[in-house]
Each structure stands twice: as C-alpha cells, then as structure tokens.
C-alpha cells in the first residue's frame, strides 16, 4: 500500500511561510492566556476589588500615588 502526502492548502502554506520568515528574524511563537474580561466572574471580581480599594482608609494616598505615576511620560 502506497502512502501519499496530501498537498498543503494555500492558507497553510502562507502561514508556514510567514512563520518561517519570523523565525528567520529571530522570533519564536508563544501562547499567552489572559483573563476573559467579558466573563461575569471577572467583572464581579474586578468590581469587588475596586470597591475594596475605594473604601480603604488609604484610598486618597493610593490615588495620589497612581496620579503621580501617570504624569510620567515614556
């Protein structure tokens, strides 16, 4: 029985070529997982944390610190 290779689809060839060019430039692929900011659990937890910070006895000082940092330009 003879095994034949399937010809790669044009889309797959483009992706392969693109990845090869990036690798030639010294890049490597990585996968990054981040929180889903659309999930109800994320929204609830973000709200809980922001409310805790806002009601802290240090809220004014914390906000002044953030404001001072945001004035710096990169």
Overview of this structure, please?
The protein is mainly alpha-helical. It has one domain. The protein is built from three helices and no strands. The mean pLDDT is 90.
Which blocks of ≥5 consecutive residues have pLDDT under 50? none
Give a short account of the largest sheet: none
Distance between the termini: 64 Å
- How much of the sequence lies in strands comes to under 5%
Q: How many structural units, i.e. domains?
A: 1
- Which class do the helix and strand fractions yield? mainly alpha
Task: Give the % helix.
Answer: 55-70%
Q: What topology emerges from the helices and strands here?
A:
Layout: H1 10-24, H2 40-54, H3 59-70
Summary keywords:
74 residues; single chain; 57% helix; mainly alpha
Summarize the structure.
The protein has 74 residues and is mostly helical. Helices cover 57% and strands 0% of the residues.
């Amino acid at each position: 029985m003879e095994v034949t290779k399937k010809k790669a689809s044009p889309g797959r060839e483009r992706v392969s070529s693109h990845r090869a060019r990036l690798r030639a430039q010294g890049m490597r692929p990585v996968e990054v997982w981040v929180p889903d900011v659309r999930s109800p659990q994320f929204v609830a937890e973000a709200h809980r944390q922001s409310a805790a910070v806002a009601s802290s006895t240090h809220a004014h000082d914390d906000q002044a610190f953030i404001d001072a940092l945001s004035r710096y330009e990169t």
